[in-house]
Amino acid sequence: MLDSAISFETPQQLFTRVFCELKPRTVPPEVRVQFCRFANANSSIRLENSCLHVRISDVLEGAPAPILEALAFILLSKLYRRPVPAGYAVRYRRYLNRKDMRRNLHLVRQTRGHKLATGPQGAHYDLNQIFDELNFRYFFGLMAKPNLGWSLRRSRTTLGHYDPSHHIIILSKLLDDAKVPQLAVEYVMFHEMLHLRFPVDHSGTRRRVHTPEFKEAERKYPRYEEAKELLKKL
User: Which of 21, 91, 129, 233 has a Cα at 20 to 30 A from 122?
Assistant: First the structure.
């Protein structure tokens, strides 16, 4: 009964209703909802001049009303620093984890997104050479080479990442330094290469980036503990 009722609401009416459910003693502000051409499924909300401005990825423009309702609860709960109701969070995550949604988001990231990175040749390390050596040593030379590059900034929080939408491995420019041992650079590259070997596992609402098979293969890396200690010092 509820689902059929909310299906006739406009996005503005839906957000207003959810606001009233979360803050029943507060006069609801004006609500403006805009679907935007984002490169992902991110959405945002802000309160400005007694008006709620909601920006939602256009990937969700045709989503069923219960999904938009779940998103409204998530955004408004975060805005007013309240716990997100578990049922709505699960509903929203399960929808984004559907195969068709993952496929749509993958295409959106490919066509709209872009990666900011320099080429593989750094000041001290050549990512092409490192990839080729690791490929021959641990993957029998059978792994197809993705795009490789150094990040524009010397990130300490993300030393490397693999982006499947753009099929690129990017290592932090922090590692392209004569003071950084080659073992550290090789280990980060090896870790990101494992993401090509063991893709993300999607199951229900779960999204496991590091599967048990991934972790087992990673621990088999020679000098694994030594490499981990080197990275901690960075």
Answer: 233
